[in-house]
Amino acid sequence: MKQEKESVEKGIRRKWWQRSFPISMMILLAIVFTTSSAAAAPTGSFNIGAYWQPPTAGPAYSTDMNTNANWLAIKNANIDTVMAIESESLMTKATNESGINFSNANNVTLMATDGGIYGKETFTAADITALNNKILPYKNDPRVKGLNLKDEPGGWNLEGYANTYKQAKLFAPDLSYYVNLLAYKAERSESDSLGAPGGKLFLSNSAARGSGTFVTAQQSLGQTFKMPADVSYLHSMQFYLDAVQWSSNEMLSLKIWDSPAKTTKLAQADVWGYASATTGQQYKYYPIFTLDVQLTANTTYYWELTHNGGGDNSVGWVTSSPTGTSTNPDGTAYVNGVVKNYDFYYKLYTRRPNTPDIKVNPPVGSGDYIRSNQSFGQTFTTSSNVNRFLYYIQPYIDPVLWNGQALTITLWDSPSKTNKIAVSKTLTSSNSGLMPIFYIAAKLSSNTSYYWEITSNSSSNVGWMVYSSSSVYAGGTAYKNGVQQANSDIWFNARFGSEYENYVDDWVDYSGADFIQFDNYPFMGGPSDDANYFLNIELIRDRAIDKNVKYGAFLQSVGITDSNTGAVRYRNPNLNEKRYNVYTHLAYGFKNMYWFTYWRPQTNGWGEVFNGSPVDFNGTQLAAYAHIQTLNSEMKNLGTTLKDLTSQAVYHTGLNKPRGTTGIPASFFIRPQDMNETTVTGYFTNTHGRKYIMLVNREYNFVKTNIPFNLNPKPATLTEISKTTGAEVPLVQGTYTAGTGVLNITLAQGEGRLFALPIGY
């Protein structure tokens, strides 16, 4: 919904642009990587906000809508923060004046947008100077509380925006800064618009830009580089080149050598070009070459990029710094083996420490068929340092006898199959040749044994499931029809950590920010909801807790239709759906709760027509205004307690638990009597260890009346945090019987309620 169109960066030069241009000296902006603890601490703050301030005079409005009345309406809607985005390229300190003045007068924080700041990447000394000069007028104005830096950056240029955040925070630390991440929509790859590399960045020469040259069948490009003292494994390398000039029948090869003399080749990766790369596909300008090679720390090596023929035998520009400009003190560029006085743009990645994948790849030999009466499975053991989701399981299956039959992998706690943890997406054919990918999305514990089992719905033979005739894996063993196979293992890979988790982690690591913010809108066209809604919430919470930062989300307050077809892209949510949107996030510990959108945007360049917003184009209050005003009031009151709570766990009940969620354990101290009730249970503690529970109705179409919950052990009392006052009070509605430990409550459609356990419970 909130999207940004990017122009192709100026460092790329087309083949017909042969003339270089003057450019100031560039230097590398060092990246400071942050570390994190294992659990999130309470933040002491709870924020309610909205996207889109009243617009200023410009292309869409003849008059400035930033009046005191319009900002008073924002305050009266219980909104304390507003992100500005209207005509961002035209906004200056002068045009922001009315918004700054009236937001400050009404004690609302405006994240002001300025065309010289928004969407700017920072790499060089000149970049830093330009950014600081643009921030200075806001820094010197005590009425200004925050600035809008970027909405939905792609992973391929996240480093530049993170550098901007870091530098802005350094220059004006008293200001708040807004950066909002993309949502998880589907399984992704490193070559899509998310652009999050599989490796962890350890050396960046991103400041080397402004010039470039071509790699051709007759001209190789190279660069010496030095491995840092604390890194000895090279996972992959990334370049910046003109993908428009790289056709699908042109292959580039990257080789790692011991030196420019090329005595010993240590690794090689080959990548084919693209059939096309438009301005909407900038991620293709940043290809990644996966090398996976062990090198020696504190040692200099040489990479070489060659063209293997095909197409017009020319790809470029491959971006570099201008002639005479050094951005890397530990290396230099080469063309056809001749040293140059500049450097190429490149990034080096090592393995991520928290994604210890499992690879059980015995020699291909034994096997058997899968069918409805014959299943296969394998136990496996997680490592001690895994702290990300199990992304997928990839077995070895011959695709020849797999034509439309459904195969599914189910993840269990053990071969006894007592607790079902997750079910993969069903496949009806191989999606990657002999090694199909079954996406799982399950958070697993470290140093723990699990069991996956693949089953078919067909009575005919499916595939040829490959397993070994001898044991090759100490962490588990193969099973056939639930019977352990002695000295045998299934051929499989288990990958931990998705590209989306890489993307979220990279934002915090690159920027050093103390927050993660994202947007995800569940209410699709028609009656359907986003199937990944809860998985996205789970992933954001998980990464924020791992990084020990605050996390926030956007809530859906509008509908969107297609201006060309009239098709509903997102339906206009009613009050019950908005309530569900609010409380499902609160149960997960979100503390920045922002609405998209407050002011109704004009129809945009993506053919989006907005409807049902809280206020219309002229600021007239509509039905949704009362909706968000009421829900914001509830959040504000609950926030007086929630701001100091730490999310400990979130559990789901019901027959069909959403993808990525966790069922409530049998030993947990509060559970619904009927485990088929569709509920969400958020478990929190305060700084003194006192326990709190938020119980949420996971259905927005039905009221749940007098639902019984069992508490064990049985607390002597149970209190509730009031949505109308924020005070801790006796049960507002419902009963609790200490003798039986049974709580009976009613939950409106999508409603959540926050309860406090006695001190010492």
Overall description:
With 761 residues, this protein is an alpha+beta fold. Helix content is 14%, strand content 30%. It has 8 helices and 45 strands. It has an 8-stranded parallel sheet. A 6-stranded antiparallel sheet has the order 11-10-13-8-15-16, with no helix packed on it. β22 and β23 form a beta hairpin. The longest helix has 20 residues, at 623-642. The model is unreliable at 3-39 (pLDDT under 50).
Separation, N- and C-terminal Cα atoms: 44 Å
Report the C-alpha radius of gyration, rounded: 28 Å
Low-confidence stretches: 3-39
Helix amount, in percent? 10-25%
Number of discrete domains: 4
What is the CATH class of the largest domain? Alpha Beta
User: Would you tell me which CATH topology of the largest domain applies?
Assistant: TIM Barrel
Q: What CATH architecture label of the largest domain applies? A: Alpha-Beta Barrel
Task: Count up the helices.
Answer: 8
CATH superfamily heading of the largest domain = Glycosidases
Strand content: 25-35%
Q: Average pLDDT across residues?
A: 91
Signal peptide: 1-40
Keywords: Signal
Secondary structure elements and pairings:
Elements: E1 47-51, H1 68-76, E2 81-83, H2 97-105, E3 109-112, H3 125-139, E4 146-151, H4 158-171, E5 176-180, E6 200-204, E7 211-216, E8 221-226, E9 233-238, E10 251-257, E11 265-272, E12 288-294, E13 300-307, E14 314-320, E15 333-335, E16 338-339, E17 347-350, E18 358-360, E19 367-370, E20 376-381, E21 390-395, E22 407-412, E23 420-423, E24 438-442, E25 449-456, E26 462-466, E27 478-480, E28 483-484, E29 492-496, H5 499-511, E30 515-519, H6 533-547, E31 550-556, E32 559-562, E33 568-570, H7 575-586, E34 592-596, E35 608-611, H8 623-642, E36 646-652, E37 670-672, E38 679-685, E39 691-697, E40 704-711, E41 719-721, E42 728-729, E43 735-737, E44 742-747, E45 752-756
Parallel strand pairs: 1-2, 1-34, 2-3, 3-4, 4-5, 30-31, 31-34
Antiparallel strand pairs: 6-17, 7-14, 8-13, 8-15, 9-12, 9-17, 10-11, 10-13, 15-16, 18-29, 19-26, 20-25, 20-27, 21-24, 21-29, 22-23, 22-25, 27-28, 32-33, 32-35, 36-38, 37-40, 38-39, 39-45, 40-44, 41-42, 41-45, 43-44
Signal peptide: 1-40
Keywords: Signal
